[in-house]
Amino acid sequence: MSIKNKSKRLAYLLRHDRKYQFDVNGWREVSDLINKHGFTLEDLCAIVDTNNKQRFEFSEDMQYMRARQGHSIQVDVELEECAPPPFLFHGTAEYFVNNILEEGLRSQNRLHVHLSSTIETAINVGKRHGTPVVFKVDTQKMFKNGAKFYLSRNGVWLTDYVATEYLSLEK
Ligand code: HQG
After folding, report:
1. Backbone dihedral region of 106: left (phi > 0), alpha (psi from -120 to 50 degrees) or beta?
2. How far, in Å, from the CA of 162 to the mean position of ligand 1?
3. How far is the CA of 125 from the centre of ligand 1 (A)?
4. Is the model's pLDDT at 52 over the cut of 90?
């Protein structure tokens, strides 16, 4: 398996695997990944070091690993609450747009709505689902109105929900 595919498999095991009993902060034993899922320690180190989005981290003692964001399982990865920049972007696919304009951005299967700092990143996120469309999010107004924002350790902005009043289509 290529390192890219191993990384995808690891993302599933650290974000979405309902069969594993995660620690409250989202940590999974390195020994479990090695003994039950076919990774070597070298694989895991290479994935942490080379991952383009720095998605994963080891615990200090190297006994555990976790994903820094993107989970569907209920864990607390100790996200840092932060004041957002004035605007952020959300990339989605064309066929979700009408629904989003009706009900706002929901986190769907994940714990949070994911927002991007740049239009380019948002386009790439949207492409994963189809023809990309980018929403501009008035994060400043949301923040003034009491919404909370979190910045993951790999630089992804997260929030719980974005109501339609804060959304505009980016052309
Ligand atoms: C859409 C990747 C209909 C939402 C990326 C998205 C990201 C709605 C899809 C991270 C909706 C959920 C997350 C509504 C939201 N009606 N559709 N009301 N509200 N949606 O994959 O943001 O590579 O769970 O627009 O880079 O695409 O995995 O979220 O299209 O940072 O590290 O529902 O995943 O990171 O899709 O992607 P997803 P996402 P990684």
Report:
1. beta
2. 13
3. 7
4. no
Tokens linked to 150? 């979190």
Residue 53 near ligand 1, beta carbon < 6 Å: yes
Q: CA-CA distance, 117 to 87, in Å (whole number)?
A: 8
Cβ-Cβ contacts under 8 Å for 135 (sequence gap 6 or more)? 89, 90, 91, 92, 100, 105, 122, 167, 168, 169, 170
Model pTM? 0.94
Residue 26 confidence (pLDDT)? 97
Q: How far is it, in rounded angstroms, from Cα 75 to Cα 120?
A: 29
Which residue's CA is minimally distant from atom 22 of ligand 1? 114
Distance CA 82, CA 12 (A): 27
pLDDT at 51 over 90: no
Type of residue at 78: E
pLDDT of residue 1: 86
